[in-house]
């Protein structure tokens, strides 16, 4: 099923410019790899990066974005509070948000979740990750077999200090002995949020067909449902209130 | 069952000093009424108010608090960001938090929940509220019959813009035609949070035996479980990782 | 968005044949009214009724059904255990199930939920029901404004003895003083389940445009996601297991 | 904190009588090992086994049981439907239930959960299991550090075909490459249910101090909260219903 979802991919875009190892893997930036992956699933995506004016996330861009994909790592603190507030308002108003990998420690994810989500275990040791589907009925897992195997990835381990997810789609097994809840859904305001663990900058994770499929599925899942807006504030009674004695 | 839980009740304490109608209902402040209610259930509680130094919430006070009860309304914006951050850290470290009535719009509740939780319907019309128990197995509802009836209260109506609660304990019916999810639990970090709707300052709600019982139950429920702390950050592998080809 | 979902509407179809009041409201049966409602939303639906052979739910019918809609009331006990078991297996294998109104007390709903879901309050008093949306981000609520108002309905009141729903979409207000969780989602196996409260046989509820829309939304939501099947049972290790001392 | 909880431990008690390897590990039966473990935490427990009259679960025994612990494996089908129904009613009326290891495939667990919970992966290969705490705020995890390590256990792997748990306390890592949601909570009626994975009959798992502690914690958690009973059925209006035109 093809949907017309307007997607913007935001990437910090620093590692790829300064680290040869990363540049070799993602010569045009992680955002281009992600956009190409979505294109394979019939989804067009624009891109935005940290060093553009307003980090590329102008009010106009956000107003024409149904789902925002977020990758950041070394420069979380350089994202301005004003832009974070703007993205935050957009999510509460219904924009979907897909947070990838080290984005768990971004300002926007912490603000939406209400915990300091930098707390987890990690290790860079070229180890195998296996993402098991624990919710095979979930549309985000559609088209994947039982698990996704990544030959080399950074390890993230529990405890991951996030609120209990509304839905748990994937749990990762790591060769070095840890597990991680690696596919999580949340809702905030009218916006849907999906956190997806894989994607360390030194590995070709975002070229993996299953990873591309999951991100495309997540974009479709997170797109706004087009619900009418609730009315808030002081209001008149709908029923007649009987006088009290 | 009597537990030794160290409780601090925080009250804005402005309406009671400036509004004769409120003063008549709570001559010693809402915090005193709440403390007296807990005392009936064998729970000792200290108090703190907005206009004390550091709003009465010094580091020392928080370190000796297992559960914090929060009532605020007209002066949310006067609570300093520094103190909010301090309370936030305490909750993430395991302190329980009971947020009452208009505390839904407090800085601390919004920060912990990740939504701008001021969004709901409201009306002051002396109308009847009936809080139905929808989870009779929950310890917070222990000792209550099917519902709690309040002859006159302020109305809060859906949509209430909070994340889906982990547990829904009460749903309110209002005479004027609205419903409201009025008893909600959340976890953030290692802290447990309970939001309880009733308690507009012009009504004697906090003298109602069932309301006192629910707050006492909630305090016992929110007390820390004494769990050992997870270890976060860079870590060594627990298992031997096989060399890749 | 138009989807090709294969729907079967199951109706007990007894009240309409034996009770003049009901016959006047649903002269061709509740199933026909429901099918017509779905047709307005571009969804074709077959029908099946209790008194057909195998209750109209042959293995062949179920194999070509993506979503089953269920209305029953006075003859729950006449539904054969064999057919219940057949429907049960279909749901676990991914068929969606929409349970309407008094279907809460059906064998199939109890078997899937794990509680004796006949336990609730009820009253026939021609009273007003107002179904408030408590989850405006949910696709089942798409296109509805803040609430659905039904001028006359049977009352269902809490406590409703079901497991805590995974998602709570609607809460009903009743004129006589009760509330009810009236739109609930569950997953069992690979199947999605939606319970929707309204639709007493003596009222024209299923002709209401908003009710028709919600049921159409629910059918789209409950349609299988097409996920590959997990493999169960005895298995070989994926990793080499080190010999123990 | 010491509580007076009345516990009954039910054990199939067949492997221990017929398999020398199991007899060597649990010479007095798994039920005795479990009872001894609870005694260390100040909890007295009675026992019952399959081959006693009424499987040891008479109406009288169940009426004086706050929490029932269940271990079964090779003879699930020999448990009579009448006793299963009796246990089922007790859980819905508030009795806690702790289901251990292969009890996932018992009649009572399937009936309460609403899925055919025999579906999972498994392997007997003397491999290491590591149960990671993913919810450190949960009372069932109190007193445990980050994980529990079992040097040799049977593997259970995802997908585990249970409804999404209300709370996920533990996730297991297995040496052979799988993960498993191994500590799950549910509520049914007024009863609390905890499923805990470890405890294959050929391993000394139930002598492990952390395992004993978790089971003791779970018993305390599952004990009834003493809530007043809801009233079900036909009822009178609480509010005056206005006549319709």
Explain what the structure shows.
- Four copies of one chain form a homotetramer.
- The first copy, chain A, has a domain at 7-114 and 182-222: Class I glutamine amidotransferase (GATase) domain (Rossmann fold, 3-Layer(aba) Sandwich).
- In chain A, 24% of the residues lie in helices and 29% in strands.
- Chain A has helices at 15-18, 20-25, 30-39, 59-63, 81-92, 107-113, 209-222; strands spanning 7-11, 45-49, 67-71, 96-100, 121-133, 147-157, 167-174, 179-188, 191-196, 233-234.
- In chain A, strands 2-1-3-4-9-8-7-5-6 form a nine-stranded mixed beta sheet.
- In chain A, β3 (67-71), α5 (81-92) and β4 (96-100) form a beta-alpha-beta unit.
- Chains A and B meet through α6, β5, β6, β8 and β10 of A and α6, β5, β6, β8 and β10 of B.
- Chains A, B, C, D: Pfam families: ThuA.
Assess the beta-strand content of chain A as a share of residues.
25-35%
Pair of chains with the largest interface and how many residues each contributes: A-B, 48 and 47 residues
- The CATH architecture classification of the domain at 7-114 and 182-222 in chain A is 3-Layer(aba) Sandwich
Number of DSSP helical runs of chain A: 7
Please identify the top-level CATH class of the domain at 7-114 and 182-222 in chain A. Answer: Alpha Beta
Major sheet of chain A:
9 strands, mixed
Strand order in space, largest sheet of chain A: 2-1-3-4-9-8-7-5-6
- Give the radius of gyration of chain A: 19 Å
Regions with little confidence, pLDDT below 50 for 5+ residues of chain A: none
DSSP, total strands of chain A: 10
**Which secondary-structure class do the elements of chain A indicate?**
alpha/beta
Helix proportion of chain A: 10-25%
Elements of chain A, N to C (H/E): EHHHEHEHEHEEEEEHE
The overall pLDDT of chain A, averaged over residues, is 95
Q: What is the fold named in CATH at topology level of the domain at 7-114 and 182-222 in chain A?
A: Rossmann fold
Distance between the termini of chain A: 61 Å
Q: How is the quaternary structure best described?
A: homotetramer
The CATH H-level superfamily of the domain at 7-114 and 182-222 in chain A is: Class I glutamine amidotransferase (GATase) domain
Overall spatial form of chain A: globular
